[in-house]
Amino acid sequence: FTVLFIYFTCISTVQTTDCLHLKEQCINAGNGCESVWNVVEDVCNISVLGNRCKAEDTVGCNRIIQVLADEYPEFKNCVCTTDDICSITTLLGKQCGINKENISMVTKLQWDLSALSKQVYTTNRSCLDVNRECIEDEVCNKQLSLYLKVCSVNKKCNVEGCQAAIRFFYRNMPFEVAQMMIFCDCIQRDEPCHRAKELLHGKPCAVTAVPPPSCLNVIHMCEENELCRKKYTTFRSKCWRHVTKKCYNDEACLETLVKDDIPCSANSECKAAYISNWGTMLHTECTCQNLPLVEQPLCELFHHMLHSRSCFS
């Protein structure tokens, strides 16, 4: 019995050390992991002194830890989301399985009790109305408050941190609610509505770069990032099957396509893939100005795929 006790104690110590090392690697990696970790600290309300967790939103805490494990699989053996209490303690020590169903079930129950999720999706709703309804809804407001805290324009913008918060925000939304927020709109001179739209859509922190990159650069940078590449591949296959089927990754082939002739599926799977792009560099505003003439057609094709709302009109 004593030998077994020592053995399991050693395993626990090794696990804790390995996970602490992974945390340090994450913070210093420069690949976006630090931004997700910062959101974990915000959601789980981790004490600066040590790693104690005092989360009020335990479901949200476990959800963001699950996001960390999904986006950075090296953490998969360091997390446990099967308990009802904040699992940051298990992130730093206890090895156990991940049970996504438990988290999904509790989150669904919260949204089932939310009035906002019962609304039927309609196109072109006012962003001011959607923003107001989210603020007045307890479940949505809790999610929105965290996202706005991380993406606040009143402090220095952490682009990757804000993007991670946007991914977390829309990932936690029921599909109908996410659609209402993503596809809301404003008439030209309605300034309060435009401000609400910027809040919901992550501007300017996560979207606006100065100077704006070319859409070609955005695609190339995305393809070099594993998380972004997966989302882009899914988006292209769900929304632009014609492009995927005919050209795949052949840019010379893509240049022969005319954007007006490319059919977009615009079904629910396509909309979900489009929403999933938010919080990645694919959502960054990009331009095709000042490019050599030979690069213009391909750039305009990418701009059309990433930013044209005609697919969803």
Automatic annotation (TrEMBL):
The lineage of its organism: Eukaryota, Metazoa, Chordata, Craniata, Vertebrata. It comes from the Eukaryota. Residues 1-16 form the signal peptide. It comes from Leiothrix lutea. It holds the Pfam family GDNF. This is GFRAL protein. Its main location: membrane. InterPro entries: GDNF/GAS1, GDNF_alpha, GDNF_rcpt. SUPFAM superfamilies: GDNF receptor-like (SSF110035).
